[in-house]
Amino acid sequence: MAEHENGAKGVSRRKFLHGAGVGAVAVAGAGVMTQATAASGDKCKTVGCDYDVVVIGGGFAGVTAARDSRKNGYKTLLLEARSRLGGRTFTSEFDGHKVEMGGTWIHQAQPFVWAEKERYGLEVLETPVSGAVLDKEEYVVRVGDTTHTLSGEQLLPLYEALDSFYAEARQVWDRPYDAQYTWNEITRRDKRTAQQRLDELTLNPVQRVAIDSFVGATAHAPLDQASYVDMLRYWALSGWNLQGFNDAVVRYKLKDGTVGLINKMIEDGKPEVRLSTPVKKIEDKGDHTVVTTQKGEKIVAASVIIALPMNVLPNLEFSPALDPALIEAGKQKHSGKGIKFYIKARGGFTKLAKVTAMADSNYPVNLVMAHYVSDDYTLFVAFGNDPSKVDIFDIKAVQSILEPLFPGIQVESTHGYEWTLDPYSLGTYASYKPDWFEKYYAHFQKDRGRIFFGQGDHGEGWRGCIDGAIAAGGKAAQRTKEMLG
Amino acid sequence: MIGRYAHHLCVALGLLGLINLPAQAAEACDLAAGQKLFETRCTTCHSLAEHKVGPKLGGVFGRKAGSAPGFTYTPTLEQAGFTWNTEKLDAFLSGPMTFLPGTAMAFGGLRQAVDRQALTCFLSQQGPHS
């Protein structure tokens, strides 16, 4: 306790007063907590602390952790560096449509996010969104300088190619939420890149491009930098088949945007939220923690939940020092480092159809999908594995990239966000790099003392997706509860 | 009150020809192109009238960097120590993170000088109450 008091002394008078008050207040029952209309009415259960739980990072992981912690009866503060919540989800507007600059799609095969959608009664839209019935499906595959347009039965060889790429998924991820169950199968292939897997298959050029495009967009990286086994994980999670995979990763999006769900969670849990508050340092003092913001404010808490992207972890100071493996992996960065952007265009493609274009890893965009379709124009969402290959805001440049895929297309405007440049994300959606399972898996998401790790980039299941973030935050809040009592 | 006097002073100096009034700068540039650039490349995060993900941009010209009331800046912007003008905005927009390492503005930059010119010109015309 002596150390605790020393640690708290340098903080502020208000904190001592706050702490002094705690002794006189009985532990608030759950009923009292839920009746509170403002988080400021809460009392910290731990003597001398400002908060029972401080959550760092306001993406889906952090928002879930903060909501759950407050509902668990703890005085909770959520700290977010940016001036908005959502992390690597960001609902924006483009040409009058709500668009997601980051994480977009959810599905009932993603148990954590779908539970939230149901809990709050949120509606979903099917993409491509259209007022018309889109019964035509068309694929454009760019092979070298030739563009192939395929539909109907012509697509079967593409499906077969994908089936063959993922053929080992059952063996490697028989239980997609339990890496240990097939640990030997995973580690045996750990060093393999998705490119090596592609190279060993006997395929025609169109099939090769289809896999390159599809897997590249999943990893958001060129195939030679994507982990083969981690790509198999997605296939396993969606039921080991293409229909399940497509439905799970690009079919439903929240009608009111990801921000709609974020807002519901905050309204529900009512944690105290501070935006524009980057954190500099996190100290575990044994019987309490101290979080220091970049502005120098010190916040004393019984526990801290880290809900930050793995790539930004090396930019914070930890005491005791962070596991060096986390710094090393964070500096190496996960594979998600591409670009995603929207394109408004007319002409050059079949109207009122589900149009998809595919190109190989060398092309500036690898996957282009219709997202909003009207009789007048289509909004496409495009994925590229290297932001340096395309200036997404240069309409002429985007036109020249789309023209070979859709001859005669007229690009009118574009909209996007450069996640790899954002210092608070330093990447897009995470998947692991080759060799990471053996090197880092045991190190990720490991709590230490009063510091809990609820990072959406890690954990079993749909890590790297909205679902995985909600799972990670919720599980971290649960473990924190077990420690705090 | 001080702000109001300062505004009057600026107008007076402008009338005397002692400082460049925005209108003079506008003669040499394409405002429509600047507005289109603003609408397509800035409005994801910025508005002229209010703070969004980034600070409001109405009145950015002549404003000290990192000083718009009510917006929390990164230390980099707060400590930048300059006032936004054509030259500084041009340099910033060509590569925010190159010009001001530590900024949180997730934007790769406007690669075309003509685009930067049109955008800075448009912004120079937007007063604090636009």
UniProtKB/TrEMBL annotation, chain A:
<feature type="binding site">
    <location>
        <position position="383"/>
    </location>
    <ligand>
        <name>substrate</name>
    </ligand>
</feature>
<protein>
    <submittedName>
        <fullName>NAD(P)/FAD-dependent oxidoreductase</fullName>
    </submittedName>
</protein>
<keyword id="KW-0560">Oxidoreductase</keyword>
<dbReference type="InterPro" id="IPR001613">
    <property type="entry name" value="Flavin_amine_oxidase"/>
</dbReference>
<dbReference type="InterPro" id="IPR036188">
    <property type="entry name" value="FAD/NAD-bd_sf"/>
</dbReference>
<comment type="similarity">
    <text>Belongs to the flavin monoamine oxidase family.</text>
</comment>
<feature type="binding site">
    <location>
        <position position="279"/>
    </location>
    <ligand>
        <name>FAD</name>
    </ligand>
</feature>
<dbReference type="Pfam" id="PF01593">
    <property type="entry name" value="Amino_oxidase"/>
</dbReference>
<feature type="domain" description="Amine oxidase">
    <location>
        <begin position="60"/>
        <end position="479"/>
    </location>
</feature>
<dbReference type="GO" id="GO:0016491">
    <property type="term" value="F:oxidoreductase activity"/>
</dbReference>
<feature type="binding site">
    <location>
        <begin position="80"/>
        <end position="81"/>
    </location>
    <ligand>
        <name>FAD</name>
    </ligand>
</feature>
<dbReference type="InterPro" id="IPR050703">
    <property type="entry name" value="Flavin_MAO"/>
</dbReference>
<dbReference type="InterPro" id="IPR002937">
    <property type="entry name" value="Amino_oxidase"/>
</dbReference>
<dbReference type="InterPro" id="IPR006311">
    <property type="entry name" value="TAT_signal"/>
</dbReference>
UniProtKB/TrEMBL annotation, chain B:
<dbReference type="InterPro" id="IPR009056">
    <property type="entry name" value="Cyt_c-like_dom"/>
</dbReference>
<keyword id="KW-0479">Metal-binding</keyword>
<keyword id="KW-0408">Iron</keyword>
<keyword id="KW-0813">Transport</keyword>
<feature type="signal peptide">
    <location>
        <begin position="1"/>
        <end position="25"/>
    </location>
</feature>
<dbReference type="InterPro" id="IPR002327">
    <property type="entry name" value="Cyt_c_1A/1B"/>
</dbReference>
<keyword id="KW-0732">Signal</keyword>
<dbReference type="GO" id="GO:0020037">
    <property type="term" value="F:heme binding"/>
</dbReference>
<keyword id="KW-0249">Electron transport</keyword>
<dbReference type="Pfam" id="PF00034">
    <property type="entry name" value="Cytochrom_C"/>
</dbReference>
<feature type="domain" description="Cytochrome c">
    <location>
        <begin position="29"/>
        <end position="127"/>
    </location>
</feature>
<dbReference type="InterPro" id="IPR036909">
    <property type="entry name" value="Cyt_c-like_dom_sf"/>
</dbReference>
<dbReference type="GO" id="GO:0046872">
    <property type="term" value="F:metal ion binding"/>
</dbReference>
<dbReference type="GO" id="GO:0009055">
    <property type="term" value="F:electron transfer activity"/>
</dbReference>
<keyword id="KW-0349">Heme</keyword>
<protein>
    <submittedName>
        <fullName>Cytochrome C</fullName>
    </submittedName>
</protein>
